Amino acid sequence: MPITRRAALGALAASPFLAAPAVRAQAPVELTFNYPIAVGGPIARIIDGYCDDFQKANPGIRIRQVYTGSYQDSITKALTATRGGDAPDMACLLSTDMFTLIDEDVVLPWDGLPGAEAAWMDRFYPGFMENSRSGGKTWGIPFQRSTIVMYYNKEAFSAAGLNPEVAPANWTEQVEFAQKLTRRSGDNVSQWGLQIPSSGFPYWLFQALTTQNDVRLMNEAGNQTFYADPKVAEALQYWLDLAQKHKVHPAGIVEWGTTPRDFFERKVAMIWTTTGNLTNIKTNAPFAFGVAQLAAGRKPGSPTGGGNLYVFKAASEAKREAAVKFARFLTEPERAAQWGIDTGYVATSPEAWETAKMKDYVAGFPAAAVARDQLRHAVAELSTHENQRVTKALNDGLQSVLTGRSQPQPAMTAAQAEAERILRRYRG
Fold first, then answer.
1. 285: how many CB neighbours lie within 10 A of its CB?
2. pTM above 0.85, yes or no
């Protein structure tokens, strides 16, 4: 929603999130800001609007916003540019990129930057800060953050004799519901009961299952993984059984990017995906839909996900100060609330949920609060040193099982051996 300069300046004066000192620069400071898009919806237009609003409120700063593709593309481009002497000043990158950015020595902790008081950084949800802090320092500011939620077709529920207001509460019910929702004629399936994507971010969707099976995939220090734990293999067996045993889920690899479209086209009745797709689904689903917390196994749960804001070491002092001011602008409660409304991402501070606009939105659309409410069961997303390599070891193991090339326990044992080979040097 566009805001006037007067409104923006009023917010700057009124909110504790925006109490950063003005940038003291004789000439306009140009801040290069890289950002990704990982979901459907008008993200680029919204970001452009924020940059315009910020510049109107802060005429001494110019934002050069650069769309850098997917999250995977964005971290690669940021590191390549940094090595080539052309680092961004600030970037939105995965929260799980934190250890990689620290190890590459390319980012600064926010602590101690002009205007980044502890009181501001402590206002974000603790569940999001688990992937933002390490070694007593704050490396990332939560911005484009999420949890995984279930979306379901209420019309399909009604047609299958299910209560359209009640989603499956546990793994057993999830299978039972999916069996009733799967529509097949011989070997042809016109509607699957459930779809959990296994491309794009397979480790993330799988981490929901391991969390629900009461097992963690890594330690807090990011230097050890637990892929070979029997509970991890049990969680993978459950995922595999959805397709092979129960036949309520597509076999093989399910694409991340096409899962929402499959839902719109009624090819699947229940899907797991990020809450960041909420506005996309709200806008495009041609039927009544529900949003629910993920079904519980031994316990309920989901990993958090999404992107944090990082400041790069190459930024000058003036640009560092401008970066803090821009981060505070983006995360100010009124704006964070509007971001959540416009995108579906979780507004990252409790104060944002106390704004009048968010209260009104939730009152009219209760599904908007599902991901926030799930935070009490959330865990930190899989993040380690050399995160891409360690995550790839898990992703390769998952895909080998889902495509029928190996069994869960041997695949997870092999993934753990590869992760251990990479991480052992980070344990001293």
1. 17
2. yes
